[in-house]
Amino acid sequence: MAPALTSNSFRVAPGGGRRRSLYSTREHKSLKTVTVQAKQNLFSFGKPQGDASSEEEAKGEGSANKANRFFIDFGKIPDAKSLVPVVTSPSTTLFASTRRKDPRAVFVAGATGQAGARISWALLRQGFSVRAGVPDLPSAQDLARVVSTYKIISPEESKRLNAVESSFSDAESIAKAIGLATKVVVTVGAAENGPSAEVTTDDALEVVRAAQLAGVDHVAVVYNSGPVGFSGQSSYNVLDGISSFFSNLFARSQPLTLGEFLSKVAELDVSYTLIKAAFTEDYSDESSYGLVVSEEGSTAGTASEFKVSKSQIAKLVADVFSDTSIAENKVVEVSTSPTATSKPIQELFSAIPEDGRRKAYAEAVAKAKAEEEAAEEKALEAEEAAKKLEEEVKKLSEKKARATSLSKEAQQRVAEAGSSLDNLFIKAKGLSNDLSWDKLSSQLTAAVSQINNNNDDDEAMEEKKARTQIATVRGQAKARNLPSKKAVVKKPPQKPKPKQPEVKNIFGGLFKQETIYIDDD
């Protein structure tokens, strides 16, 4: 049995008898599914349908051919590759499907690469379903023919192999090719994008980003630290070295270094395991040595470090996917040693610490978030302070406007008062002109004389009234002492005339003094 070669199915089964083929087509949403069952020789074609000899042969076959109403003559088919449908949008329906993820499905990016093919076979042997991402389906068909011929995988394993056309161009297309797989593996190195093309750290980063988009649980990145060249080995050709030099010199951009790649992977929300090793071929002596797994940077420059065969790396990846919890967020360096013994995967990875880049990035994100929150709080405080200041400025503006209006009103009143005062001064000036000292003196003299006259009259009246009262009292007293006699009426004696009052001018004639003489009787 050969592996399936499309995102639907492509099954090849050997058998005896006549060279007949049976195919049926069914449409699954936007993709067509083709199932082919061939007898012994997959690529044996019949004669053209219009040939008379083929018609006679068909008549001679009798009822056997008539019974099979789906008999097809391959004479019209120029190449067996035409049996493989061209999928313009691979796994589009699977990517958009609401079906649950398959925990035992693994997407192998670059499944036709030197290490990618071996990783696919190792995963199939451990019971995983493999979605093989290939750069083009015809090349995958050639590989499937070799696998079918040499019985590299069993018929049962071929049922769990599903090939999808996938490149390293962008993360979205890779995410569609991942489909329902929950694990992804990609190998960085020469001859990993097909049999000869290279997979760079930039390509691998696109695969990791696609894994995040597709909701993948774990990603394994295999990094070949061996010499650059076909199969990881130098060709020892000077011209190849010169062409490689100028290719790197005039390249648009240099690929990411391993440190830069890991820093960017640590920023993504997907667990990862990076396996760094120097690859060698499966027929080398190192393939029989035991694996040594150590933490990053512990074996740099070690003379006793031996390379690792691609089959050993493939088995290690399959073991990691069997229990991803022991290798989550870890970076390891793998080598071989003739004295190392075989150990289970749990023992190999248990002593490896987690990658500090993910923790440092999480701390940096938390710190940045805290700083952002603090900045937001300060911004809110500043905004509130600005609002308060704006309110105070508004109040001050209102007060200023009020003060300005009061000032204008006061100025208006002052102006009005000034005009009134000027009028008063004018009137006062007019009065001062009308007023003279002589006139004032005469007026005062007249007023004083009038007052004195009034006072003199009042005093004379009071004195006269007192003298009358005194006389009355004395007369009453004498009358009591006198004997009773007949009343004799006597004429009152004439009183002398009082002296005329004396009038004198005082204060230079300003005032007059009047002297009045009064008798005691």
Query: Could you say which overall geometry the principal axes of the C-alpha atoms support?
Result: rod-shaped
Residue-averaged pLDDT? 75
| Helical stretch tally | 14
- Counted beta strands: 15
**Strand coverage percent:** 15-25%
End-to-end Cα distance: 181 Å
Helix content: 40-55%
Q: Can you write the helix and strand succession as a string?
A: EEHHHEHEHHEHEEHEHHEEEEHEHHHEE
SSE-based structural type: alpha/beta
Question: What Rg do the Cα atoms give?
Answer: 65 Å
Q: What characterizes the major β-sheet? A: 9 strands, mixed
Low-confidence stretches: 1-96, 229-236
Describe this entry's structure for a reader:
By secondary structure, the protein is α/β, with parallel strands linked by helices. The protein has 14 helices and 15 strands. It has helices spanning 52-60, 63-67, 92-95, 114-125, 137-149, 155-158, 171-178, 201-213, 238-249, 258-266, 310-322, 345-350, 356-434, 437-481; strands spanning 22-28, 31-37, 102-109, 129-134, 161-165, 181-193, 197-199, 218-224, 271-277, 279-280, 290-295, 308-309, 330-337, 502-506, 511-515. The strands form four sheets. Strands 3, 4, 5, 6, 7, 8, 9, 11 and 13 form a nine-stranded mixed sheet that branches. Helix 4 (114-125) links the parallel strand 3 (102-109) and strand 4. Helix 4 crosses helix 11 (310-322), helix 8 (201-213) packs parallel to helix 10 (258-266) and helix 10 (258-266) packs across helix 13. It starts with 21 loop residues before the first strand and ends in a 6-residue tail after the last strand.
